[in-house]
Design a protein that fits this description.
Elements: H1 3-8, H2 11-22, H3 28-48, H4 68-71, H5 76-88, H6 94-114, H7 141-149, H8 156-169, H9 173-177, E1 189-193, E2 199-203, H10 206-215, H11 243-256, H12 266-279, H13 285-292, H14 297-300, H15 308-316
Antiparallel strand pairs: 1-2
Helix pairs in contact: 2-3, 3-6, 5-6, 8-10, 8-12
């Protein structure tokens, strides 16, 4: 947990964050998001209750004095009013408002059932904003090959291996950066540490094995700090490669391959891997769930969308597709 959170968060929120980090195994990014969501929520509550001066800037409102007595006064109507405020005053889209609502729901559930500070959960019946269902952005098979073909430069073996693992294994950015050399098994397996410190095993295909075999001889050994010696991917400073560096690598090659400007990112390469496995590899959706490390099948089912070509072929396969219009008499 960040020092700024430890200093500025009131005890009741700090305990909630500690519980989710230590017991629920939430990532540091999730903890940061929880805190920022709750900070915005309680700033709004204090402002609406007249607990701060009228001239106080919203960003300057302290929540250090938030306690259970204030929290007990919050109603479901207050939470919905907050989500309206997020939409109209802060310009939050449906996905962002849904995340904030989820944070509030988790927080009040914790207060009610984990630490028993509330008799009734005001967020129990909270509904999430309706979100537009859209297909995840991804590269086609041809575009994926074009991206791989664009790799060159001093770190081409490393960069090619990174892109290959993204496009074949569908791992998250943090998972790739966290890989250790010892995660590679002699049987062709790869151990991945996912969300909530949950481990999963994937079995590398020939493309992944070949890219690793090509990269490992070029991986720095001399001058690598003892704390970084096990990291699979290293930066030019001979430290474990960071999320930001990998993002830069991906953006660089997307631009080089003429694929930039479409909102593509490292996470979209994960979508690409899942889509290619489902559409071209006929991978069972339940197997795909395990490969991606999803907690439930519902998250994976977004990849059951079909391509325009598949839709076109399906209609063309209809036995009535060749039926001719017959002349009709008056």
């Amino acid at each position: 947990m960040k020092h700024e959170i430890l200093v500025s968060a009131p005890p009741i929120i700090r305990d909630f964050l500690t519980y989710n980090e230590s017991i629920k195994g939430k990532s540091s990014n999730s903890i940061d998001e929880y805190y920022l969501d709750l900070q915005t929520f309680f700033r709004y509550i204090k402002q609406m209750r007249g607990m701060v001066g009228k001239d106080t800037e919203f960003a300057d409102i302290s929540i250090s004095d938030v306690d259970i007595d204030l929290i007990k006064t919050i109603t479901l109507s207050d939470i919905y009013a907050f989500l309206v405020f997020c939409k109209n005053d802060r310009g939050n889209n449906a996905a962002t408002r849904a995340r904030k609502g989820s944070t509030i729901r988790i927080f009040f559930k914790y207060l009610t059932f984990q630490v028993h500070l509330l008799d009734k959960n005001p967020a129990e019946l909270l509904e999430s904003p309706k979100m537009k269902k859209s297909l995840p952005k991804h590269l086609t098979l041809e575009e994926s090959k074009k991206l791989l073909d664009s790799v060159d430069g001093n770190n081409k073996e490393r960069d090619y291996c990174i892109l290959t693992l993204f496009l074949n294994c569908g791992m998250r950015l943090s998972e790739l950066c966290g890989l250790d050399v010892t995660d590679i098994g002699t049987d062709g397996s790869l151990r991945i540490l996912g969300k909530g410190n949950k481990e999963r095993i994937v079995y590398l295909n020939d493309a992944c094995v070949n890219s690793l075999v090509a990269y490992l001889p070029h991986r720095p050994v001399d001058g690598v700090p003892a704390t970084e010696k096990n990291a699979l991917f290293l930066s030019r400073n001979k430290k474990r490669i960071s999320n930001k560096t990998v993002q830069h690598i991906v953006y660089t090659y997307l631009e080089k391959a003429g694929l930039s400007g479409r909102g593509l990112s490292t996470h979209k390469l994960r979508h690409t891997a899942a889509t290619l496995m489902y559409q071209h590899g006929n991978v069972d959706i339940r197997v795909l769930k395990d490969i991606l490390g999803h907690a439930n099948l519902g998250t994976t089912q977004i990849y059951t969308h079909v391509s325009n070509e598949q839709v076109r072929n399906a209609l063309a396969a209809n036995p009535l597709s060749d039926e001719k219009i017959k002349n009709r008499g008056n």
